[in-house]
Each structure stands twice: as C-alpha cells, then as structure tokens.
Amino acid sequence: MSPADAQLNLDEQIQNKIDGKTKPRGALGDLETLAAQLCRIQQTLTPKLVDPTIIVFAADHGLTEEAVSAYPREVSPQMAWNILAGGAGINVFSKQNGIEVVVVDSGVDWPDEHPEGMIDHWMGPGTNNALKGDAMTPEAVDKCLEAGAEVVDKNVSPKSTIIGFGELGIGNTSSASLLVSAFTGLPIADCVGPGTGLIGEGLAKKVEILTAVQNAHPKPKDARETLQMFGGFEIAQMAGAMLQAYRTGRILMIDGFVASSALLAARSIEPNILDNAIFCHESGEPGHAKLLDYLEARPLLHLKMRLGEGSGCAVAYPVIQSALVFLRDMASFEDAGVSTGEPEAADKK
Fold first, then answer.
1. Which residue in 38, 118, 201, 230 is deepest, having the highest Cβ count within 10 Å?
2. Distance between CA 213 and CA 229 in Å, rounded?
3. Domains of the chain, CATH where assigned
4. How do residues 25-82 score in pLDDT, each as one tens digit?
5. Is 309 a known active-site residue?
6. Are strands 251-254 and 162-168 parallel, antiparallel or unpaired?
7. How far is CA 195 from CA 74, 108, 275, in A?
8. pTM score of the predicted model
9. Which of 309, 334, 342, 344 is catalytic?
10. Exposure string (b/e) for 4-16, b if CB count within 10 Å is 16 or more?
C-alpha cells in the first residue's frame, strides 16, 4: 500500500470511529474535526495528550522608542518577574489544567542582572528600532531559529505530545503586525490593533509609525529576511520552536496574534506545519481575525482575549482534552446496542 493509500485508509478509519459514537453524525461539531486532527497528527486511532507544556518567549523591541505602546518598555522585565513568581495569567490557567510552563529569556532589557528560572537564550536588550534599519541581523535570525529548536529538544519533556506557544514583550504586537502584513499581503492598517490598550490618536499614531517602518524597507524575499526586517527575538525563537515541535510530531497549540505571526514565519519555511497547529482562540486584536481568515483556520474559542503569554492555549486545553476523551471513552452504537437510525440498519431488522 502506498503512503497516500495508507493515509486515505487511516482517514476512513478515523471518520468511521467518530461517526460510530452514540450521537447523531456531526453532533459534536468542531470537536469531531479536532479529534480527527489529533488522530492524523499522531497517525493513530488512539491519540494521547502527555505532559502538556507551554513555552513563553520574552523579549523587548526597539520600536518602543517610537511610542507604539501604551506601556513603557520597563513593563517587559516586570511581567517576566511576575511569571517567574507564579502570579501571571499563564501561571494560574496552566496550574488549573496541569500544564508545565517554560519561560525563555529571548532578549529582555533587564535593568539589573538576569533572573534565575528562565531558559537563557538572551540575544541582547531587545531588537533594533525597525524604523531606522533592520530589527536584527541575518546571523541573529539563524541563531534565534536554532535556539527555539533547542528549547524544544532540551527543555520540554521528550514524552510531551503537545506544546503551546506564548510570548511577552512590550512592542511585540507592532512587530507582529508588520510580519502579518508582509506574509499575507494584508494592508498594514488592517493588521494593527490596540496592543497594550492604545485607542484614538494613540492607535492612529501606531498605524502611521508602522506604515513608515514598512515603507522604509524593501519587500522581503523569504521568511528569514522578513524576520530580519521586522521580527522580535521572541517571535523568531518561537518560530524555531514551532518548527522543531512539528518535526518531532507534536501537537502545536497556537495562542493569539503574536504567536500566529510566528507561525506564519514557520509556515513560510515548512508549509505542512499547519497540519499540526490548533488555533486556540481568536484574539481581541483585530488583525488576528483577518490572519485566521487568510489561513482559513477555525479557532476553538472566541473570548476576546489579548493577554498573550500563551494564556489562550492554557484556557483552550480542556477543549482539546474533550475531543480526545469523547473519541476514547464514548460508547459506540455497537457497544451500547443502540440503533443508528440509518436506513441500512432498519432494513436488517
């Protein structure tokens, strides 16, 4: 049997197993689609969720010099400390759902010495100001992609079957907006949102600055050049981690707007990565809905969250568990002795 025929055979078995559960066909809606995806990722009718982990990448951005955020740059290290202390949203949601949290120092601008408890892949005190040149060097892009892969290999349990991706860093929605516009061709104005809470004139100014950034650069030729021009250290490292998670057969939980911009970079390098990606929610950032439409992706939740940190992954994880549990534990018509109600079954009586 050819690999293509084997996949068709597995797909048929998956659908038969889902349709054979004691429910009207399609009655569990998107949970059925999700269950089938889990089976295809792991190439089995009995997928498993083992050692769920969320990796949070933290870094600062040179574009904060241009007042693209409602919060000062100093908030990045403060929020990193909050996660390390267990007081952030990602901590409480992950604890609720039994998820391990790994925090990576990709390039936070620390006022003092670097704290313990973070994985050290520090690239410097934030990227360069993309309005005045490239955000990072080509060498930094390659190093970030390699560092992200290393985090998956060395800091996540080898038994883990599912990894979520989150971030923190003042200015990163600006970087994400530029990346999304570059990868999708959407107008920059359609990709820009409030980020840390900009409204009115502040939001209009953000659009103006990001338009100027985009106009200051030639059209990038590939994913690495796009990250070089507009990316953040945490976004590039996240893309590298996503690629390695895909290569090692993991399920990828994608958080909101910034994490999805990293996925676009990873997808430009490895188009099949979307097969393993679960979009956990639709962010309150308006550009995220347009990005999801571009990818024809259906997020699990619509809660208007835009916290980042991987919080959407942690909140959505129980939904992913539900898809697995119904597939594993729900009785089939045959096991329960329940009539399917289909004409073929009625004819046999």
1. 230
2. 9
3. 53-325 (3.40.50.10210)
4. 999 999 999 999 999 999 999 999 999 999 999 999 999 998 787 778 889 999 999 9
5. yes
6. parallel
7. 16, 18, 28
8. 0.92
9. 309
10. eeeeeeeeeebee
